[in-house]
Amino acid sequence: MVRRWTLIVLIPLVLAACGSTTPTPTTGMTSSPSPASSPVPPSGTVRSGDPATIGAAFVAALSRGDDSAAEGMEDATMRAAAPAAQLGQLWAQFVAQYGAFQDIGTATTTAQAPYTIAAVPTQFANSTVTLTVAVSSAGQVSGLHVAKVAPSASSPASSPAAYVNPTGFTEASVTVGLAPWALPGTLSLPKGTGPFPAVVLVQGSGPSDRDETFGPNRPFRDLAWGLASAGVAVLRYDKRTLVYGAQMAADTSITVREETMDDAIAAIALLRRTPGVDSTRVFLAGHSLGAYLAPRIAAQVPGQLAGIAMLEAPSTPLVHLVLVQEQYLVSLQGSPSPQVEQQQAALEAQVSLAESPSLSPSTPASELPLDTPASYWLDLRTYDPLTVAAALRVPMFFSQGGRDYQVPPSQLPPWQTALAGHANVAFRSYAAMDHLLLDGSGPATPAEYSLPGHVDARLVADLAAWITGS
């Protein structure tokens, strides 16, 4: 499975000619990274040496802005997927997401036939990011992906938000699901006499950790701690695409069921049998892709959920939002360059194919949006979230940020129309909130995601009141 750049948090994607499954940040940013010193020689023609040196040299070239040198290290397939210009955009997105580049640590390697995977710890201002570089037996770079993100402890977002009472709850490690897809998670349980209402948090797309870490921000940790402070038990967990990215790369027929749904269902089952949790008051709260899939998940577990919360929920097909997001990002650049116009035309053609009757399981992923397999788009064709939600009889909660350009405010009215006859639906709008559920001002840009913050306090309070019925 070969996927490339992602639109933040929404569509899953991979940058790897060898088939890695970890997504990268949003495309559409064209600013060049600042040159930086590196402990690795600036060679774009490395063909000898150990894979650790090659992987570190590739990352170092990216960090210096030496995109041509980085391209020269790639094999033919990787070069076609990620030429120099796109590598420069990719690094600029890393900087926007994780802060200014600072240093490269000592790379380590593991065998993953037919490649050797070099793990390169890369220090940015807000996070330590482990970038993994797939190196072929010929010493060429065959793939790149983000394997792990550890926010800096000095980031303001690392401290609890004002609405968190750290002494009001405890946290324990749990395991969601069973082998071969068991996932590590965290249960936040209020102190006091239970049983407590509880909620499962379901992330957006991509290989997100349990905190939905993005740059210095941890929106799911904010939600978990804020809700637990208000008397709601919360279960969050690392996504399968983060923990088992390499294994999932071998599955060329992946759908949202493997990416998200199966594990969310397992998390619901775990929460319902957890001591201290009221099994009749278990909720699901999905964000972005997780919100889009919330009705489908609820329909799969009738009678098991007391309600679903949809935070920044798309109402139109996800493939449409690929264009919406791209068009917005292009608009930020003013007059787009010929290269950007060419990329936009190519994306439009890919979206058209994904929507056409001629799409089949054998359609190459390289011809489809974000290099995502045909199986993914074919599966989503069978799902209309508005129709599925309208057939549910559980309470629903919707949040919509006024500054969300990834799931813009225009996505909310279709939900309101489809659910107009339902008395148990709450719609909440937050004018200053962006897609990460953080407040800001002015036109939203990808760069603001690198600024530390906390989930909107009003959203946390509204969601807690909706769950507890207070």
Descriptive overview:
The protein is of the alpha/beta class. It has 3 domains: 1-153, no CATH class; 156-312 and 384-468, Rossmann fold (3-Layer(aba) Sandwich), CATH 3.40.50; 319-377, no CATH class. The chain has 15 helices and 13 strands. The chain has helices at residues 51-64, 67-72, 76-81, 84-98, 219-229, 240-243, 245-249, 256-272, 289-300, 318-331, 338-355, 374-381, 385-391, 412-418, 457-468, and strands at 101-104, 108-112, 115-124, 127-135, 141-151, 169-176, 183-190, 196-202, 233-237, 277-287, 307-311, 396-401, 425-430. It has an 8-stranded mixed β-sheet. Strands 1, 2, 3, 4 and 5 form a 5-stranded antiparallel β-sheet that branches. A hairpin with a 2-residue loop joins strand 2 (108-112) and strand 3 (115-124). Helix 8 (256-272) crosses helix 9 (289-300), helix 9 (289-300) packs across helix 13 and helix 10 (318-331) packs antiparallel against helix 11 (338-355). The longest helix is centred in the C-terminal third of the chain and has 18 residues, at 338-355. The radius of gyration is 22 Å and the shape is globular.
